[in-house]
Amino acid sequence: MTKTKLLLLSLCFLINCVAHAKPAAVIFDLDDTLFDVSCRKAEVSHQLGVQWRLPRLAALRLEETDYFCAGSLKNAGIEEASLVNRICGDEKGDGWKTSPWGRLFLSGSFLKYDCLLPGSVEFVNRVTRKTGAILIYLTARTQETQEADTWRELEYHSFPVEKEKALLVTRPSGASGSDAEFKRGLVRSLATRFELIGAFDDSRSNANMLRQELPPDAPVVRPVRDVSERTGVSDGVEQITNYYFNSGGSSAEASANASQLESILRRLRQMPCDTAKAEDL
């Protein structure tokens, strides 16, 4: 390589760094993005089944747990409208949050029942190790009742939590608007402080919002059970089923989307001033 070419490359690199002086960051949602909350919902069902003397609910299997409280009760053979309403509250609005089901589900002490999405801990640690980016855990979990326990669970499961590596942003109880609206405002605020190079969120509305707000070359990824189902999902939102790279190490299951994960990680690593080598992946 000639000295002139080397000088030009160095100059381009320096200009790129100056133009992107903000620290790079990757956004991760928590519920059903890094943690599988169906395990928490199953425990809520078990405890309510005991409290309300509903043995079929107390014995509900994990695979019978529904996204909604009423669905879980239906799977336990409980469909009497007044009983369902007393346990679940109004699931079309915010009434469920103060219901017996909602109070347990939203309790900080119940976060310990969450399972992990397969490979999530290894992948998030790989992201921070290979990119040097700050992790922003952006969640609609309630600030007053769930933030402290969220930090504890992240640390317990070995997600990066060091203050120089991670930031946790939760939702104040008085915040108005939908989760997507709440997060949009925060994403715009965070974009003034960080170069947002990627985001992971299972919610369709949140993923669509993130696709609108982040640069077009920044990966926006949605963990789902069925990647073929894209109804209402914006173009440019990628879908994965898990975070496994291969069948070795601590992962017992081979990943069907390993090549996609590697592609996502490579694109995350194409950040300003990143000097790591591609072969390190």
Largest sheet: 6 strands, parallel
Instruction: Give the overall shape.
Output: globular
* Helical residues, percent: 40-55%
Percent strand: 5-15%
Radius of gyration: 21 Å
Order of helices and strands: HEEHHHHHEHEHEHEHEEH
Class computed from helices, strands and strand pairing: alpha/beta
Strand order of the largest sheet: 5-4-1-6-7-8
Question: Helix count, per DSSP?
Answer: 11
Oligomerization status of the protein chains = single chain
Quote the distance from N terminus to C terminus. Answer: 26 Å
Global mean pLDDT: 88
Write the layout of secondary structure elements.
Elements: H1 3-19, E1 24-28, E2 35-36, H2 38-51, H3 55-58, H4 69-75, H5 81-88, H6 100-105, E3 115-116, H7 120-131, E4 134-142, H8 143-156, E5 166-171, H9 179-190, E6 195-200, H10 204-213, E7 220-223, E8 237-240, H11 258-269
Parallel strand pairs: 1-4, 1-6, 4-5, 6-7, 7-8
Antiparallel strand pairs: 2-3
Helix pairs in contact: 9-10
Structure description:
By secondary structure, the protein is of the alpha/beta class. It is 41% helix and 14% strand. It contains eleven helices and eight strands. The protein has helices spanning 3-19, 38-51, 55-58, 69-75, 81-88, 100-105, 120-131, 143-156, 179-190, 204-213, 258-269; strands at 24-28, 35-36, 115-116, 134-142, 166-171, 195-200, 220-223, 237-240. The strands form two sheets. Strands 5-4-1-6-7-8 form a six-stranded parallel sheet, with helices on both faces. Helix 9 (179-190) packs parallel to helix 10 (204-213). The longest helix has 17 residues, at 3-19. The protein is globular, with a radius of gyration of 21 Å. Mean pLDDT is 88; it is low at 5-11, 248-253 and 274-281.
